[in-house]
């Protein structure tokens, strides 16, 4: 099976699992192939468009991540919601909701929401 066919057979849930696995490993090589050319990220701390900008932002978050514990994940045919606790900058873990939208085996959108006050105060 070629690489593109392999990517397209992954479920949105598997893609979201890889997204968080790469974040925890702080290695985004595997994730790059799963980002659509026009992917977009929007979150409390910023926005990013396109794979390079997207990965640059996620690498920045990962470099400041002390802990990341996934609590729950719910998925359907194209959307995944991941609820997780994020520890950054020595702040207490913050509850985060991450919505990942997948089309044709590629991440097209990610939206993240959380209360950043403790992270910003610690940073």
Automatic annotation (TrEMBL):
Residue ranges of the TM segments: none
Entry-linked Pfam families: SnoaL_2
InterPro entries: NTF2-like_dom_sf (IPR032710), SnoaL-like (IPR037401)
Every SnoaL-like domain range: 17-109
Superkingdom of the source species: Bacteria
Protein name: SnoaL-like domain-containing protein
Taxonomic path: Bacteria, Bacillati, Actinomycetota, Actinomycetes, Mycobacteriales
């Amino acid at each position: 099976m070629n690489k593109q066919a392999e990517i397209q057979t992954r479920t949105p849930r598997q893609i979201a699992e890889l997204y968080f696995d790469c974040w925890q490993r702080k290695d985004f090589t595997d994730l790059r192939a799963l980002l659509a050319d026009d992917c977009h990220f929007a979150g409390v701390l910023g926005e990013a468009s396109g794979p390079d900008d997207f990965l640059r932002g996620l690498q920045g978050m990962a470099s400041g991540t002390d802990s990341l514990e996934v609590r729950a994940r719910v998925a359907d045919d194209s959307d995944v919601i991941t609820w997780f606790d994020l520890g950054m900058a020595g702040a207490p873990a913050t509850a985060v909701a991450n919505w990942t939208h997948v089309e044709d085996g590629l991440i097209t959108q990610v939206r993240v929401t959380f209360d950043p006050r403790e992270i910003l105060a610690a940073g």
